[in-house]
Design brief:
With 452 residues, the protein is of the alpha+beta class. It has a domain at 11-133 and 371-448. It contains 12 helices and 15 strands. It has helices spanning 55-61, 87-100, 144-157, 167-170, 187-191, 222-236, 240-249, 283-298, 307-317, 340-350, 362-368, 429-440, and strands spanning 11-13, 31-32, 84-85, 104-111, 114-122, 138-139, 272-273, 279-280, 337-338, 373-374, 379-381, 386-390, 393-401, 406-412, 417-423. Strands 5-4-15-14-13-12-11-10 form an 8-stranded antiparallel sheet, sandwiched between helices. A 3-stranded mixed sheet has the order 2-1-3. The longest helix is centred in the middle third of the chain and has 16 residues, at 283-298. The protein is globular and about 60 Å long.
Protein backbone atom coordinates (compact mmCIF):
# COMPACT_ATOMS: atom_id res chain seq x y z
CA UNK A 1 0.00 0.00 0.00
CA UNK A 2 1.47 3.33 -1.05
CA UNK A 3 1.31 6.04 1.57
CA UNK A 4 -0.08 9.34 0.30
CA UNK A 5 2.35 12.21 -0.07
CA UNK A 6 2.40 14.60 2.81
CA UNK A 7 1.42 18.23 2.30
CA UNK A 8 3.74 19.66 4.93
CA UNK A 9 6.78 21.79 4.15
CA UNK A 10 9.80 20.10 2.65
CA UNK A 11 13.43 20.57 3.45
CA UNK A 12 15.42 21.80 0.49
CA UNK A 13 18.78 20.40 -0.54
CA UNK A 14 21.04 22.82 -2.38
CA UNK A 15 23.83 21.01 -4.22
CA UNK A 16 27.01 22.61 -5.57
CA UNK A 17 27.15 22.10 -9.30
CA UNK A 18 30.94 22.07 -9.29
CA UNK A 19 32.17 20.88 -5.93
CA UNK A 20 35.96 21.37 -5.69
CA UNK A 21 36.29 18.11 -3.74
CA UNK A 22 34.82 16.03 -6.55
CA UNK A 23 35.53 15.75 -10.26
CA UNK A 24 32.01 14.58 -11.04
CA UNK A 25 29.16 17.01 -11.56
CA UNK A 26 26.43 16.91 -8.95
CA UNK A 27 22.85 15.87 -9.54
CA UNK A 28 20.05 18.42 -9.96
CA UNK A 29 18.85 19.80 -6.67
CA UNK A 30 16.03 17.66 -5.24
CA UNK A 31 13.57 18.48 -2.51
CA UNK A 32 14.50 16.42 0.50
CA UNK A 33 13.31 15.01 3.81
CA UNK A 34 10.26 16.65 5.37
CA UNK A 35 11.19 18.16 8.69
CA UNK A 36 9.18 19.09 11.72
CA UNK A 37 9.41 20.16 15.33
CA UNK A 38 11.67 22.41 17.32
CA UNK A 39 15.44 22.66 17.22
CA UNK A 40 17.04 20.94 20.19
CA UNK A 41 19.99 23.23 19.69
CA UNK A 42 20.75 25.92 17.14
CA UNK A 43 22.12 24.33 13.97
CA UNK A 44 23.70 27.54 12.75
CA UNK A 45 27.00 27.63 14.58
CA UNK A 46 26.09 24.35 16.35
CA UNK A 47 25.65 26.11 19.69
CA UNK A 48 25.58 23.26 22.17
CA UNK A 49 23.56 22.98 25.33
CA UNK A 50 25.12 24.01 28.60
CA UNK A 51 27.67 21.46 29.73
CA UNK A 52 25.90 20.94 33.06
CA UNK A 53 23.07 19.12 31.28
CA UNK A 54 24.24 15.61 30.51
CA UNK A 55 23.37 13.83 27.25
CA UNK A 56 21.47 11.17 29.15
CA UNK A 57 19.48 13.71 31.18
CA UNK A 58 18.59 15.56 28.00
CA UNK A 59 17.56 12.40 26.17
CA UNK A 60 15.20 11.44 28.95
CA UNK A 61 13.80 14.92 29.37
CA UNK A 62 12.96 15.95 25.79
CA UNK A 63 10.58 14.96 23.08
CA UNK A 64 6.93 14.02 23.10
CA UNK A 65 5.95 11.09 25.26
CA UNK A 66 6.76 7.79 23.62
CA UNK A 67 3.36 6.19 23.64
CA UNK A 68 2.27 2.57 23.71
CA UNK A 69 2.93 0.68 20.45
CA UNK A 70 0.93 2.03 17.55
CA UNK A 71 1.28 2.21 13.79
CA UNK A 72 2.88 5.39 12.46
CA UNK A 73 0.27 7.62 10.80
CA UNK A 74 1.15 9.41 7.57
CA UNK A 75 -1.01 12.40 8.57
CA UNK A 76 0.67 15.48 10.07
CA UNK A 77 -0.96 18.53 11.61
CA UNK A 78 2.05 20.78 12.27
CA UNK A 79 3.84 22.85 9.66
CA UNK A 80 7.52 22.06 10.19
CA UNK A 81 10.51 24.40 9.89
CA UNK A 82 12.84 24.03 6.94
CA UNK A 83 16.27 22.46 7.04
CA UNK A 84 18.83 22.65 4.26
CA UNK A 85 22.09 21.15 3.13
CA UNK A 86 23.42 24.30 1.56
CA UNK A 87 26.21 24.97 -0.90
CA UNK A 88 28.15 26.39 2.01
CA UNK A 89 27.71 23.29 4.17
CA UNK A 90 28.91 20.97 1.40
CA UNK A 91 31.81 23.28 0.56
CA UNK A 92 32.79 23.33 4.24
CA UNK A 93 32.46 19.58 4.79
CA UNK A 94 36.13 18.77 3.90
CA UNK A 95 37.20 21.31 6.53
CA UNK A 96 34.95 19.69 9.15
CA UNK A 97 36.39 16.29 8.23
CA UNK A 98 39.92 17.58 8.69
CA UNK A 99 39.07 19.07 12.09
CA UNK A 100 37.37 15.86 13.23
CA UNK A 101 40.11 13.56 11.93
CA UNK A 102 37.82 11.79 9.46
CA UNK A 103 39.65 11.03 6.18
CA UNK A 104 36.58 9.88 4.24
CA UNK A 105 32.80 9.64 4.23
CA UNK A 106 29.96 8.82 1.90
CA UNK A 107 26.26 9.58 2.21
CA UNK A 108 23.06 9.02 0.29
CA UNK A 109 19.70 10.75 0.41
CA UNK A 110 16.24 9.39 -0.40
CA UNK A 111 13.33 11.53 -1.54
CA UNK A 112 9.84 10.32 -2.42
CA UNK A 113 10.98 6.72 -2.12
CA UNK A 114 13.83 7.11 -4.63
CA UNK A 115 17.57 7.67 -4.44
CA UNK A 116 17.98 11.44 -4.77
CA UNK A 117 21.68 11.90 -4.14
CA UNK A 118 24.81 9.88 -3.35
CA UNK A 119 28.17 11.57 -2.71
CA UNK A 120 31.61 10.82 -1.38
CA UNK A 121 34.19 13.09 0.25
CA UNK A 122 37.82 12.61 1.21
CA UNK A 123 39.99 9.53 0.81
CA UNK A 124 39.80 5.82 1.57
CA UNK A 125 43.12 5.78 3.40
CA UNK A 126 44.92 8.65 5.09
CA UNK A 127 48.11 9.71 3.34
CA UNK A 128 46.93 8.39 -0.03
CA UNK A 129 44.94 9.95 -2.87
CA UNK A 130 42.37 7.23 -3.61
CA UNK A 131 39.16 9.27 -3.37
CA UNK A 132 35.95 8.16 -1.69
CA UNK A 133 32.91 8.19 -3.96
CA UNK A 134 29.35 6.89 -3.84
CA UNK A 135 30.59 3.38 -4.67
CA UNK A 136 33.20 3.16 -1.89
CA UNK A 137 32.64 0.24 0.49
CA UNK A 138 32.54 0.94 4.23
CA UNK A 139 32.08 -1.17 7.32
CA UNK A 140 28.39 -0.87 8.21
CA UNK A 141 28.88 -2.22 11.74
CA UNK A 142 25.49 -2.48 13.46
CA UNK A 143 23.67 -1.21 10.39
CA UNK A 144 23.98 -4.93 9.59
CA UNK A 145 21.12 -5.69 11.99
CA UNK A 146 18.23 -3.99 10.15
CA UNK A 147 19.13 -5.80 6.91
CA UNK A 148 19.14 -9.16 8.68
CA UNK A 149 15.89 -8.30 10.46
CA UNK A 150 14.32 -7.64 7.07
CA UNK A 151 15.42 -11.13 5.98
CA UNK A 152 13.84 -12.65 9.11
CA UNK A 153 10.56 -10.83 8.48
CA UNK A 154 10.56 -12.13 4.91
CA UNK A 155 10.90 -15.60 6.42
CA UNK A 156 7.91 -14.83 8.64
CA UNK A 157 5.92 -13.74 5.59
CA UNK A 158 6.77 -17.11 4.01
CA UNK A 159 5.71 -18.90 7.22
CA UNK A 160 9.22 -20.24 7.81
CA UNK A 161 9.54 -18.76 11.29
CA UNK A 162 7.21 -17.71 14.11
CA UNK A 163 8.50 -14.55 15.80
CA UNK A 164 7.01 -15.61 19.14
CA UNK A 165 8.17 -19.21 19.23
CA UNK A 166 11.29 -19.88 21.35
CA UNK A 167 14.37 -19.95 19.13
CA UNK A 168 15.70 -22.87 21.15
CA UNK A 169 12.99 -24.99 19.52
CA UNK A 170 14.47 -24.19 16.11
CA UNK A 171 18.08 -24.47 17.20
CA UNK A 172 19.12 -25.90 20.60
CA UNK A 173 22.03 -23.50 21.11
CA UNK A 174 24.71 -25.37 23.14
CA UNK A 175 25.76 -22.13 24.87
CA UNK A 176 22.29 -21.91 26.44
CA UNK A 177 21.83 -25.54 27.47
CA UNK A 178 21.82 -24.67 31.19
CA UNK A 179 19.91 -21.39 30.88
CA UNK A 180 16.19 -21.98 31.41
CA UNK A 181 15.17 -18.35 30.79
CA UNK A 182 17.36 -18.02 27.70
CA UNK A 183 15.77 -21.09 26.15
CA UNK A 184 12.51 -19.10 25.97
CA UNK A 185 13.97 -16.20 23.97
CA UNK A 186 12.10 -15.46 20.73
CA UNK A 187 13.02 -13.79 17.44
CA UNK A 188 10.84 -10.84 18.44
CA UNK A 189 12.85 -10.33 21.63
CA UNK A 190 16.11 -10.54 19.70
CA UNK A 191 15.07 -7.95 17.11
CA UNK A 192 13.55 -5.64 19.74
CA UNK A 193 16.78 -5.82 21.77
CA UNK A 194 15.18 -7.20 24.91
CA UNK A 195 16.95 -10.56 25.40
CA UNK A 196 18.90 -9.44 28.47
CA UNK A 197 22.16 -10.69 26.97
CA UNK A 198 25.42 -8.71 27.05
CA UNK A 199 26.43 -7.11 23.77
CA UNK A 200 29.36 -9.52 23.20
CA UNK A 201 31.37 -12.09 25.09
CA UNK A 202 35.14 -11.76 24.73
CA UNK A 203 36.43 -14.74 26.72
CA UNK A 204 35.84 -18.40 25.98
CA UNK A 205 34.70 -19.20 29.53
CA UNK A 206 32.29 -16.23 29.70
CA UNK A 207 28.75 -17.41 30.33
CA UNK A 208 25.89 -16.29 28.07
CA UNK A 209 23.05 -15.59 30.48
CA UNK A 210 20.23 -13.00 30.42
CA UNK A 211 20.51 -10.32 33.09
CA UNK A 212 16.71 -10.13 33.41
CA UNK A 213 13.63 -11.94 32.18
CA UNK A 214 13.74 -11.72 28.37
CA UNK A 215 11.31 -9.18 26.95
CA UNK A 216 11.34 -7.09 30.11
CA UNK A 217 13.25 -4.05 28.88
CA UNK A 218 15.78 -2.74 26.37
CA UNK A 219 19.28 -4.24 26.48
CA UNK A 220 21.35 -4.03 23.31
CA UNK A 221 22.95 -7.33 22.30
CA UNK A 222 24.84 -8.66 19.32
CA UNK A 223 24.90 -12.09 20.97
CA UNK A 224 21.12 -12.29 20.71
CA UNK A 225 21.27 -11.59 16.99
CA UNK A 226 23.91 -14.25 16.48
CA UNK A 227 21.63 -16.77 18.22
CA UNK A 228 18.95 -15.82 15.68
CA UNK A 229 21.49 -16.25 12.87
CA UNK A 230 22.19 -19.80 14.06
CA UNK A 231 18.44 -20.50 14.08
CA UNK A 232 18.05 -19.14 10.53
CA UNK A 233 20.86 -21.40 9.32
CA UNK A 234 19.14 -24.36 10.96
CA UNK A 235 15.71 -23.52 9.53
CA UNK A 236 16.92 -22.91 5.97
CA UNK A 237 19.71 -25.49 5.91
CA UNK A 238 21.89 -22.86 4.23
CA UNK A 239 24.94 -20.81 5.09
CA UNK A 240 24.13 -17.32 6.32
CA UNK A 241 25.94 -15.40 3.56
CA UNK A 242 24.41 -17.51 0.82
CA UNK A 243 20.92 -17.13 2.24
CA UNK A 244 21.01 -13.38 2.72
CA UNK A 245 22.57 -12.85 -0.70
CA UNK A 246 19.82 -14.95 -2.26
CA UNK A 247 16.89 -13.48 -0.33
CA UNK A 248 17.86 -9.84 0.27
CA UNK A 249 21.12 -8.41 -1.07
CA UNK A 250 21.08 -9.48 -4.72
CA UNK A 251 17.30 -9.08 -5.21
CA UNK A 252 17.41 -5.53 -3.81
CA UNK A 253 20.30 -4.59 -6.10
CA UNK A 254 22.84 -4.42 -3.25
CA UNK A 255 25.54 -5.90 -5.47
CA UNK A 256 28.44 -4.28 -3.58
CA UNK A 257 27.32 -5.65 -0.21
CA UNK A 258 28.44 -8.74 1.70
CA UNK A 259 28.74 -10.03 5.26
CA UNK A 260 32.05 -11.71 4.41
CA UNK A 261 34.40 -10.65 1.61
CA UNK A 262 34.33 -10.35 -2.19
CA UNK A 263 37.62 -10.32 -4.06
CA UNK A 264 36.09 -8.47 -7.00
CA UNK A 265 35.23 -5.41 -4.88
CA UNK A 266 38.29 -5.21 -2.61
CA UNK A 267 39.77 -2.26 -4.55
CA UNK A 268 36.74 -0.17 -3.50
CA UNK A 269 37.03 -0.93 0.23
CA UNK A 270 37.89 1.89 2.61
CA UNK A 271 40.33 1.58 5.49
CA UNK A 272 39.30 2.52 9.01
CA UNK A 273 41.17 5.11 11.10
CA UNK A 274 41.74 5.42 14.83
CA UNK A 275 41.64 8.61 16.88
CA UNK A 276 45.16 9.45 15.69
CA UNK A 277 44.00 9.02 12.08
CA UNK A 278 46.24 5.96 11.68
CA UNK A 279 44.87 3.61 9.02
CA UNK A 280 43.68 0.14 10.05
CA UNK A 281 42.16 -2.58 7.91
CA UNK A 282 38.55 -3.45 8.59
CA UNK A 283 37.83 -6.81 10.24
CA UNK A 284 36.51 -8.33 6.99
CA UNK A 285 39.69 -7.32 5.14
CA UNK A 286 41.87 -8.97 7.78
CA UNK A 287 39.97 -12.27 7.72
CA UNK A 288 38.28 -12.34 4.32
CA UNK A 289 41.15 -13.08 1.90
CA UNK A 290 42.40 -15.99 4.04
CA UNK A 291 38.85 -17.36 4.42
CA UNK A 292 38.49 -17.34 0.63
CA UNK A 293 41.72 -19.35 0.35
CA UNK A 294 40.49 -21.88 2.91
CA UNK A 295 37.16 -22.13 1.10
CA UNK A 296 39.02 -22.99 -2.10
CA UNK A 297 41.17 -25.57 -0.27
CA UNK A 298 38.05 -27.15 1.23
CA UNK A 299 36.18 -26.91 -2.08
CA UNK A 300 33.27 -25.35 -0.27
CA UNK A 301 32.33 -21.79 -1.35
CA UNK A 302 32.30 -19.27 1.47
CA UNK A 303 28.58 -18.39 1.02
CA UNK A 304 27.75 -22.03 1.86
CA UNK A 305 29.58 -21.95 5.19
CA UNK A 306 27.59 -22.24 8.38
CA UNK A 307 28.79 -21.44 11.89
CA UNK A 308 30.67 -24.71 12.39
CA UNK A 309 32.67 -24.14 9.19
CA UNK A 310 33.72 -20.66 10.30
CA UNK A 311 34.61 -21.91 13.79
CA UNK A 312 36.80 -24.63 12.27
CA UNK A 313 38.53 -22.15 9.97
CA UNK A 314 39.15 -19.43 12.55
CA UNK A 315 42.37 -20.92 14.03
CA UNK A 316 43.72 -21.18 10.47
CA UNK A 317 43.18 -17.45 10.05
CA UNK A 318 44.58 -16.41 13.43
CA UNK A 319 45.45 -18.90 16.15
CA UNK A 320 44.82 -16.24 18.81
CA UNK A 321 41.17 -15.74 17.88
CA UNK A 322 38.51 -17.30 20.08
CA UNK A 323 35.58 -19.01 18.33
CA UNK A 324 33.01 -16.61 19.74
CA UNK A 325 30.47 -14.65 17.67
CA UNK A 326 32.25 -11.33 18.18
CA UNK A 327 35.27 -12.59 16.22
CA UNK A 328 33.51 -14.40 13.39
CA UNK A 329 32.35 -13.50 9.92
CA UNK A 330 29.76 -13.69 8.61
CA UNK A 331 28.07 -12.07 11.58
CA UNK A 332 24.51 -10.82 11.08
CA UNK A 333 24.97 -8.24 13.83
CA UNK A 334 28.02 -6.42 12.55
CA UNK A 335 29.97 -7.74 9.55
CA UNK A 336 28.05 -6.14 6.67
CA UNK A 337 30.22 -4.08 4.32
CA UNK A 338 28.33 -1.93 1.85
CA UNK A 339 28.03 1.38 0.01
CA UNK A 340 25.79 4.35 0.73
CA UNK A 341 23.94 3.73 -2.55
CA UNK A 342 23.33 0.07 -1.72
CA UNK A 343 22.09 0.83 1.78
CA UNK A 344 19.72 3.50 0.50
CA UNK A 345 18.10 0.85 -1.72
CA UNK A 346 17.41 -1.19 1.40
CA UNK A 347 16.00 1.81 3.29
CA UNK A 348 13.50 2.43 0.49
CA UNK A 349 11.96 -0.98 1.28
CA UNK A 350 11.35 0.14 4.87
CA UNK A 351 9.35 3.10 3.55
CA UNK A 352 6.80 0.99 1.73
CA UNK A 353 8.97 -0.48 -0.98
CA UNK A 354 8.21 -0.28 -4.67
CA UNK A 355 5.30 -2.67 -4.94
CA UNK A 356 7.01 -5.85 -6.09
CA UNK A 357 7.40 -9.32 -4.61
CA UNK A 358 10.54 -8.29 -2.70
CA UNK A 359 8.62 -5.95 -0.41
CA UNK A 360 7.66 -7.15 3.03
CA UNK A 361 4.00 -7.84 3.61
CA UNK A 362 2.53 -4.50 4.67
CA UNK A 363 1.64 -5.88 8.11
CA UNK A 364 5.25 -7.00 8.64
CA UNK A 365 6.70 -3.68 7.49
CA UNK A 366 4.41 -1.77 9.85
CA UNK A 367 5.27 -4.14 12.69
CA UNK A 368 8.96 -3.52 12.06
CA UNK A 369 8.25 0.20 12.60
CA UNK A 370 6.02 -0.29 15.65
CA UNK A 371 7.57 0.16 19.13
CA UNK A 372 8.09 -3.15 20.92
CA UNK A 373 10.18 -1.77 23.81
CA UNK A 374 10.23 1.72 25.32
CA UNK A 375 13.62 3.36 25.98
CA UNK A 376 12.64 6.88 27.06
CA UNK A 377 10.08 9.58 26.28
CA UNK A 378 11.30 10.00 22.70
CA UNK A 379 12.85 6.64 21.78
CA UNK A 380 11.83 3.02 21.52
CA UNK A 381 12.82 -0.07 19.58
CA UNK A 382 10.91 -1.84 16.83
CA UNK A 383 11.96 -5.03 15.06
CA UNK A 384 15.60 -4.42 14.20
CA UNK A 385 15.26 -0.62 14.21
CA UNK A 386 15.46 2.26 16.62
CA UNK A 387 12.35 4.46 16.59
CA UNK A 388 12.17 8.15 17.41
CA UNK A 389 8.91 9.99 18.05
CA UNK A 390 9.18 13.70 18.74
CA UNK A 391 8.26 17.06 17.23
CA UNK A 392 5.27 15.51 15.42
CA UNK A 393 7.54 13.33 13.30
CA UNK A 394 8.25 9.59 13.47
CA UNK A 395 11.62 8.33 12.30
CA UNK A 396 13.36 4.97 12.15
CA UNK A 397 17.11 4.91 12.70
CA UNK A 398 20.17 2.89 13.65
CA UNK A 399 23.79 3.55 14.45
CA UNK A 400 26.87 1.57 13.53
CA UNK A 401 30.14 1.55 15.47
CA UNK A 402 32.97 -0.88 14.80
CA UNK A 403 35.60 1.38 16.35
CA UNK A 404 37.25 2.77 13.23
CA UNK A 405 34.02 2.90 11.21
CA UNK A 406 30.99 4.94 12.32
CA UNK A 407 27.68 5.01 10.46
CA UNK A 408 24.12 6.23 10.89
CA UNK A 409 20.86 5.98 9.01
CA UNK A 410 17.53 7.69 9.57
CA UNK A 411 14.30 7.69 7.61
CA UNK A 412 10.73 8.93 7.70
CA UNK A 413 8.55 6.13 6.33
CA UNK A 414 5.45 8.31 5.97
CA UNK A 415 7.32 10.86 3.85
CA UNK A 416 9.45 8.19 2.12
CA UNK A 417 12.61 10.20 2.77
CA UNK A 418 15.88 9.43 4.49
CA UNK A 419 19.63 9.73 4.80
CA UNK A 420 22.47 7.29 5.46
CA UNK A 421 26.07 8.26 6.29
CA UNK A 422 29.20 6.09 6.41
CA UNK A 423 32.52 7.34 7.80
CA UNK A 424 35.94 5.73 8.09
CA UNK A 425 37.17 7.03 11.43
CA UNK A 426 36.65 6.76 15.17
CA UNK A 427 35.33 10.33 15.33
CA UNK A 428 32.92 9.83 12.44
CA UNK A 429 29.83 10.33 14.58
CA UNK A 430 30.70 14.03 14.82
CA UNK A 431 30.19 14.26 11.07
CA UNK A 432 27.08 12.11 10.68
CA UNK A 433 25.35 14.09 13.43
CA UNK A 434 25.84 17.29 11.47
CA UNK A 435 24.88 15.83 8.11
CA UNK A 436 21.68 14.27 9.44
CA UNK A 437 20.75 17.41 11.39
CA UNK A 438 21.24 19.52 8.27
CA UNK A 439 19.27 17.11 6.09
CA UNK A 440 16.32 16.94 8.49
CA UNK A 441 16.34 20.52 9.71
CA UNK A 442 16.75 19.64 13.38
CA UNK A 443 18.71 17.73 15.95
CA UNK A 444 17.49 14.33 17.16
CA UNK A 445 17.05 12.53 20.46
CA UNK A 446 18.69 9.52 18.80
CA UNK A 447 21.98 11.44 18.80
CA UNK A 448 21.90 11.65 22.59
CA UNK A 449 21.32 7.98 23.32
CA UNK A 450 23.99 5.29 23.35
CA UNK A 451 23.18 1.63 22.92
CA UNK A 452 25.45 -0.03 25.49
Amino acid sequence: MRIKERTTSWCHLAICRSDPSSSRQSLPTPNLFPCSGVYLYVLRGRQRMKEKTSRRQFAFGTGAAFLAPQVVSPKRTLRPPRGTISDGFLAGLPRLMELAGVPGLSFAMINDGKLALARGFGVKKSGENDAVDADTIFGAASLSKPVFSYAVLRMRDEKLIDLDRPLFQYFPYPDLADEAQARLITARQVMSQSTGFVNWRNAKNERLSPAFKPGGRFSYSGEGFYFLQRAVEEITGKGFEGYIQERVLRPLGMTSSTYVWMKETEARVSWGHNNRVAAQQMWNARQGPRLLEIAQEWRKPLPQWRHDDTARALPLVDKNLVALPNFMIPNCAGSLITTAKDYAQFMIRLMGGIGDSLDLAEASRREMLTPQVKINSALGWGLGLGLEREAAQDCFWHWGDNGTFKAFMMGDAAARSGVVVFTNATNGHRLWERIVAQATGRDHAAFLFWMV
